[in-house]
Amino acid sequence: xxxxxxxxxxxxxxxxxxxxxxxxxxxxxxxxxxxxxxxxxxxxxxxxxxxxxxxxxxxxxxxxxxxxxxxxxxxxxxxxxxxxxxxxxxxxxxxxxxxxxxxxxxxxxxxxxxxxxxxxxxxxxxxxxxxxxxxxxxxxxxxxxxxxxxxxxxxxxxxxxxxxxxxxxxxxxxxxxxxxxxxxxxxxxxxxxxxxxxxxxxxxxxxxxxxxxxxxxxxxxxxxxxxxxxxxxxxxxxxxxxxxxxxxxxxxxxxxxxxxxxxxxxxxxxxxxxxxxxxxxxxxxxxxxxxxxxxxxxxxxxxxxxxxxxxxxxxxxxxxxxxxxxxxxxxxxxxxxxxxxxxxxxxxxxx
Amino acid sequence: xxxxxxxxxxxxxxxxxxxxxxxxxxxxxxxxxxxxxxxxxxxxxxxxxxxxxxxxxxxxxxxxxxxxxxxxxxxxxxxxxxxxxxxxxxxxxxxxxxxxxxxxxxxxxxxxxxxxxxxxxxxxxxxxxxxxxxx
Lengths: 351, 135
Description:
The complex is a heterodimer.
Chain A: E1 10-18, E2 22-25, H1 26-33, E3 44-47, H2 54-69, E4 76-82, H3 93-101, E5 108-112, H4 118-131, E6 137-145, E7 160-169, E8 175-187, E9 190-191, E10 200-201, H5 207-226, E11 235-238, H6 244-253, H7 257-260, H8 266-269, H9 276-285, E12 293-297, E13 302-312, H10 316-320, H11 326-331, E14 334-335, H12 338-344
Parallel strand pairs in A: 2-14, 4-5, 4-6, 11-12
Antiparallel strand pairs in A: 1-7, 1-8, 2-3, 6-7, 8-13, 9-10, 12-13
Chain B: H1 3-8, H2 10-15, E1 17-20, E2 27-28, E3 33-34, E4 41-42, E5 44-47, E6 51-60, E7 73-80, E8 85-89, E9 103-113, E10 120-128
Antiparallel strand pairs in B: 1-2, 1-5, 3-4, 6-7, 6-9, 7-8, 9-10
């Protein structure tokens, strides 16, 4: 089993986060559906405003990434968006985003789909595109406006947010890719059929055979192949469907809480699905210092995990303050009640 | 909205792209090809910064068709830092918090949806300038 790494050194040239302004406290869902007797998997989740979707959120994250990179958007050779909430069933989100940021017309554009792993799948492809020499820069975005069925356990966490990454040559990067590894099996833990508004899931089955196995295998193989141990990393970021899963898998692998906490955003924003590990990584990049190493592990139902090992370079400090930070978006919050949430998310059917 | 009209105006709607007059230097939004200041041709694209202030505003409670999801919302005259005065919806702000002189920045948002099977129309809007908490 070997890790993946392009022949040419590549890395993250820039990044940009986006989290919408509205928060639905978990206690509010508990009040409506469980008589205040339920267990709360997060404190609150981020909810998009009535004029937001995966496209508008991707545009802002991409603009933040371009601001940090100080790169002409026409130099991007790919605009790829991973999401499970593309606004159109047929018509790419990526062409609208590419046009809005000024990357058209000489670019690839496409939408990626792999449940919550769609964003890192786009990132892997961007690494390959730059690594092969086909592109100097490629933009990969993971963004979602996830929907949970009212009353379902997922409603507590299905949230909105994500981040954009400009991948480029190693000499321009603020974080070098030391290697990546992907682990995929056919595991039906969560799905949504065509024309269905809400996903179905396998309850407890989403845990051990799905999230934990894939996250653990991807992380372990990558660390073994690179010869690293948990203590070699300053930070670790897992996919965050709740607070318990990433905390537990990190502990099982031997990571300490202080390596996990800076990138663990789910307590405050919930599960950003395809944007989850990417926005966790952006929060860590906001505070990372040269020489530090970051392990990032995504997970997508169906199921699979991408693990990345990033080494922070001297360029990080000159770019961190060039765009709003992830924590700026987390701090910008307005709590809403369940009624306004129902209106904003279009959950009310008129008869 | 006609598909062709939306397509023709996509750059100004999505990214606030106007024009700059090569003769007198005026920055024009929306783009109109003839400079209203000097009357000469002005077709050079200019990408506005998106920063400005609220010049005046009104709160909409009775919206035109397609804007019902946002009620109540604010329509403002925004004075861009380059000088142009444009009309736009404000977002991410409660109407009672808006004031004349409020610093705002451009964001691209959904303006409306043309029924369940129609186009989603994206457009520039403005919101209060995002406050950094960690600089």
